[in-house]
Amino acid sequence: MTIMSRVAAFFRSRWLGGVPLDRLFWRDMVVVGTAINIALSVAALILLGLKLPLALVLAVHFAPVPYNIFLTFAVWRTAGKSSGAKASLMTLGAKASLMTLGATLWLILVVVA
Fold first, then answer.
1. Averaged over 8-15, what is the pLDDT?
2. Which of 4, 69, 95, 109 has the most CB atoms in a 10 Å sphere around its CB?
């Protein structure tokens, strides 16, 4: 399997709800997504300290925004499937709702910060 097909499979599985909501929210978004945002923010600050062009600094800082938006929508889609017809338990629907809210707040935080 090539790297491109692995990347495509990664995005496809998250978009289509093939990954458990807990893994998508906690591991992919909160841990990995936050780490990517922190790393690129630090890189942007280093570039700013080196007095490189502001356009480059901003491009590096905002580079993860499309990925952040993708993860947020993937959580929303997966949560919608989790709280669908089979999810008659109140706790499952409440958990999905909380993760949807958490994904929204996370997106706001990482884009603004």
1. 96
2. 95
